[in-house]
Amino acid sequence: MRRPILRLGADALTEPARPVAAITTEIATLIDDMIDTMYAAPGIGLAAPQVGVPLRVFVIDLSLGHDRGELITMVNPEFVDRAGMQLEEEGCLSVPGFTATVARPHRAVVRGLDREGQPQTLEGDGLLARAFQHEIDHLDGRLFTDRLRGIKRDLIVRKIHKLARAGKW
Ligand code: NI
Q1: What backbone phi and psi angles, to 5 degrees, belong to 130?
Q2: 10-residue stretch averages of pLDDT, the chain, 169 residues long
Q3: What is the pTM of this model?
């Protein structure tokens, strides 16, 4: 079932998420709902705080659902390694209509649990590394706009305030 995606300005997006204690049926349902919500958006990644759940869970599918083999579910992720640097355009389902160039490490290795609660370690380069870091930022209460320099961030935030005042955000 799809869940509403919170947008920049929602308090839940700025609070650090808690680790998942056990993969209960509620967590399994949360994961299914996050996958449905990500595909419907459509987006390549979604973190639980974006649907208002303060738990350390994210889903990623760089194929947008075209290749189910690409679907990644990560519970309680942590970085094992990060290396290099990339500068690419980035967006977020919680900041619709806005993108910005964000500096990220080029490679990331992430360890966590899969949806069955089994340990998994995944390695990503380029876009996948960027997605890992973007989603873990969400779990730490950070949006990509928080990674921008002052002027660029202020410009986006000002435009969003304007949209909000017009009832369009
Ligand atoms: Ni995002």
Answers
A1: -65, -45
A2: 97 98 98 98 98 98 93 98 97 97 97 98 98 98 94 93 94
A3: 0.96
